[in-house]
Amino acid sequence: MNDTSVSSAPRENATTETEITLGVLDAVHANASVTQRSVAQDVGIALGLANAYLKRCVRKGLIKVQQMPPNRYAYYLTPQGISEKTRLSAEYLSSSFNFFRRAKDQCEQALKVCKARGWKRVGLVGRSELAEIAALCNIQGELELIVVEPRAGADDRFAGLKVVSESAIEGLDGMILTDLANPQGTYDRVGTVEPYSSMIVPAVLRVITREEEKASP
Q1: DSSP 3-state assignment of 200?
Q2: Can you tell me the distance from the alpha carbon of 180 to that of 46, in angstroms, rounded to the nearest whole number?
Q3: Helix or strand or coil: residue 179?
Q4: Distance of CA 85 to the CA centre of its chain
Q5: What residue ranges define each of the domains in the chain, with the CATH number in brackets?
């Protein structure tokens, strides 16, 4: 079974430097054979601006360019680019007015996946606003949601939910990644303990999943 990423709606036109840079990195990550024109369309910016941001990302070492015959180029995220993408994702998510709407839709999708798999006890990996949204989406209590974080005190609770340490995840049927501070790091860390297939990853977190990593050149 592959790890699950819940898809997101297309990005609205980017307006800030953070949004544009993140949009460019997302476009390159999604398709190495992107063109300046397709990046402009994906991010919702002018062609000249897309060209300028691509060049800036290359200069900063975030993107690597490889010439492909005939007269074509392939773009790849460097390790530094992946790190910057994660940092900008957290910054963008914290300030985006569209975050709640998109997060709610994806949490609802994630909970449906849990039910379809027959999961009953589901861990929300990360104490955050995203975990609160997931709890709101489970208002009827069809699933037993439990917040999971590296360390938890006795009788600790968050958003009305029990909080347990990551050492307790073996007793769960599955997990939904809800960490906003460092989603990629948490995904990678928890994946060394439990199968990646047991963790649903909302696309709003922009995590590079194990399957995506295997498929990249």
Answers
A1: strand
A2: 30
A3: coil
A4: 10
A5: 17-97 (1.10.10.10), 99-214 (3.40.50.720)
How many other CB atoms are there within 10 angstroms of residue 168's CB atom? 14
* pLDDT digit string, tens, across residues 162-180: 999 988 888 899 999 999 9
Mean pLDDT of 44-56: 92
3-state secondary structure 98-157: CHHHHHHHHHHHHHHHHHHCCCCEEEEECCCHHHHHHHHHCCCCCCEEEEEECCCCCCCE
According to DSSP H, which parts of the chain are helical?
A: 17-30, 36-43, 47-59, 79-95, 99-116, 129-137, 183-191, 210-215
Half-sphere exposure of 111 (CA within 13 A, CB side): 22
How far apart are the C-alpha atoms of 189 and 164, rounded to whole Å? Answer: 16
Write out the H or E segment, with its range, that includes residue 158. Answer: strand 157-158
- Please provide residue 162's backbone torsions phi and psi, each rounded to the nearest 5 degrees: -65, 145
The tokens for 129 are 């606003």
| CA gap 10, 48 in Å, rounded | 21
d(CA 72, CA 202): 33
Side chain identity at residue 192, one-letter code: T
| 82-136 per-position pLDDT tens digit | 999 988 888 777 666 677 888 999 999 999 999 999 999 999 999 999 999 999 9
Give residues with Cβ within 8 angstroms of 206, minimum separation 6.
Answer: 22, 26, 85, 86, 89, 183
